[in-house]
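Could you please review the protein record set out just below?
***
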Amino acid sequence: MTEQDDPIRESFIHQIGGIAESLGLNRSVGQLYALLYMSPGALCLDEMAEACQMSKGNVSLNVRELERWGAVRRVPVRGERRDYYEALRDVPEIVIGRMKDGLGRRLDVMREAIAEASEG
């Protein structure tokens, strides 16, 4: 990525972080997804931490969350022992999957509450 692209990349990362936060998600999750989405290749945790000015621990926790959502995946990099990640690009599918997961958990809680109320 050339230096000319940096302001565009930084703006995109900032905007996606804000959108994530407005949806009730962690801002860092949005920023990391945006960074990986804009990156021409896979990045390791150290590179993500530096680019987003976050601790490596924060990056690690949020990247694992993105993995659970199916938004990023770990990719092998020959000769490297560190884990590298890339963004999956089907944003609508990621959002729909996340919504289904959240709705499913809420329905499970509701079923349990109904079952408890029916017993009592």
In short: Residues 1 and 40 are 8 Å apart (CA to CA). The radius of gyration is 17 Å.
